[in-house]
Here is the input.
Amino acid sequence: MAPVLVTGVTGFVGAHLAARLVELGREVRVLVRDPARLPDAGWVEHVEVVRGDATDAASLERALDGVAVAHYLLHAMSDGDDYAAADREMAQTFAAAAERAGADWRLVYGGRQRTSMAFTAELAGYGGEQVDLRTDDGVGPIDVARLVQQSEGAKVFACGPLGLLDALEAAFDTAGRSDDLHLERFSAAAKPLPGDGTFRVNLARTGGHVDVPPGQSVLEALRAAGVDAPCSCEQGFCGTCETRVLAGEPDHRDDLLTEAERARGDVMMPCVSRSKTPELTLDL
Here is the structure.
């Protein structure tokens, strides 16, 4: 089986995907600038590491050699105002290298009007088999059911308005393909909270415990008790606060974990998730 290339593995989403692919028994190759920045995780010893830069054609040629699928999960960062241009240039370099290597990809790009959509000029050179440009005032919005059918056997990465993401999530779940869909949300999906009660969080490494009442998140309770826990979005979609669960059953309310990962119950996002059991023990 040909390897799968994953970029961005020093970030949460890339690392999460690489770990999942290894778990599924896939051969995984990762492209990183500095291997020393790879996370301290068990999956790392099971992947092929290619040292290089996504802006460098020679690095990309080595990384893409013989791959079946390439996952582009990079985002340019800059101290100046040109990060958008850098982001675009890096994505174009990667797409061109992937095409030369024969990697398969497809983009479904939707918007209200073509004139309001970015990068249409850059995408114009690709045929309709690779770029499906859909507008409300043209061929119509993205057909979610058709997308599920056409993407059989592939992973789908999506970002956009909540209505689209919710529809995709429901459709992939109905098709039994929840693990094939990866969403990037810019605001959290609404999570109903009726019936929430107080529960206890035991801290395995630091000792002690905190009680989490209704209306307060685990993360907020930890902070109030002086426990240092990493966080970023605090809305359940970035994954920065992911914490190992050693005992108890979490009540998952994040927008990141797959249904299979939720069923395992070995990690949770304390910024939004709660507990289905009177106590949880976390690796903190």
Remarks:
- Residues 83-100 form the longest helix (18 residues).
